[in-house]
């Protein structure tokens, strides 16, 4: 491996997507990936390093999840178990500066620090909330069609809800984010709860947070949802109505 290629690989972020058999801690039945790398000019781009592997979840795949990803028990017969295959994907030769996923908290449930080597994570959902707050919705596929990222080959991003195509789509969002703000900024946003661009419920539903009355904000700051609490607290703090250490809502809780 020549020095230029090795240098590029050290500027690599691997986007991960998982499909599962259910909700158990070892239920992964497919892992997909797509790399995003920085070129010599400092621009981030999508390269050809992508793929997917079936994983034996050690139990029957539920009908509910088959109806989403269409992976059947017969498809994973003879596949390796999660802890056997995960390190080779999550810790590739040459290393990564971070791992990434859309709503990364889901992938982090399965990709423990012992499997990733303690890699940092970027959540493209949380970053999309910050960078593109004007958009009406923030799912991976809605971002795909709202934004129509340059260079995304439609067929490679299909079928949706399969590991490699979903990682491929997410990688295009990540590439554009990295070319707009710094890696450190994305990591910081990813370490915090999601900052929702609009009030999700109550009398101010659909309005920007600065239009919400203080009473509604204080009520939402007590919500069970960490992203709603964080968003309401952020607006109260902006108004000078919330004192104390920042943030009062804990940063993204450990999922490991």
TrEMBL record:
GO terms for biological process: DNA metabolic process. CDD domains: DEDDh (cd06127). Signal peptide: none annotated. Transmembrane segments: none annotated. It comes from the Bacteria. Residues 12-183 form the Exonuclease domain. InterPro entries: Ribonucl_H, RNaseH-like_sf, RNaseH_sf. Gene3D superfamilies: Ribonuclease H-like superfamily/Ribonuclease H (3.30.420.10). One of its GO terms (molecular function) is nucleic acid binding. This is Exodeoxyribonuclease X. The lineage of its organism: Bacteria, Pseudomonadati, Pseudomonadota, Alphaproteobacteria, Hyphomicrobiales.
